[in-house]
Amino acid sequence: MSLSIQTSTLEAYPARYLAAWSQRDLATALEVIHPKVNWVDPLLPEPLTDHDGAAAFFGGAWQGFPDLTFEAVGSPLVDPSAGRVASAWRMTGTHTGEFPPGAPISGKSFEVFGTDVWEVDLDGRATSVHAFYDSIVLLRAIGLA
Predict the structure, then answer these.
(1) Could you list the residue range(s) of the whole structural domain that residue 104 is in?
(2) Using an 8 Å Cβ cutoff, are 82 and 97 in contact?
(3) Which end of the chain is flanked by fewer CB atoms within 10 Å, N or C?
(4) What sign for the dihedral angle of Cα 28, 72, 44, 143?
C-alpha cells in the first residue's frame, strides 16, 4: 500500500509557501522546501536542487526587494493522487536593493501575476517547484528590460 498525501496538506501548501516568501526568516522559509528540490523559475539560469540554492534565491530576492510580498489569487487546484497543487498568485515589491547582482537600483515598484505548481511530500515540503510568470513584466517594471 502506498501512502498518499492528504488533500488538506496540499490545500494548505500554497498559503504556507507564499507566507514563507513574504516574511524574512530563512529558516522559516526553508521549512516549506525539501532539502533536495527541483525548483524552476523564469529568473533562474538553471533549476535549484537543494537548500543552498533555495537559500540564495530567497536571500537575493529579499535583498533586492525588501518589501516583497505574495498573495494567493483564488483557490488552489489540488491533485492528491500525484501529490501536486497549483495556485495563482500576485507578487509585489519595490526594487530598493541590488538585484540581480550588479544591476542598478531603480526604486521602482512592480506587480506581477503568476502561478506555481508544487509537488509536496508527506511532511508538507515541496520536492518540486515550477513557477510560471512573465519575467519580462518584472524586469520592465524595475527598468532592467
Answers:
(1) 7-141
(2) no
(3) N
(4) negative
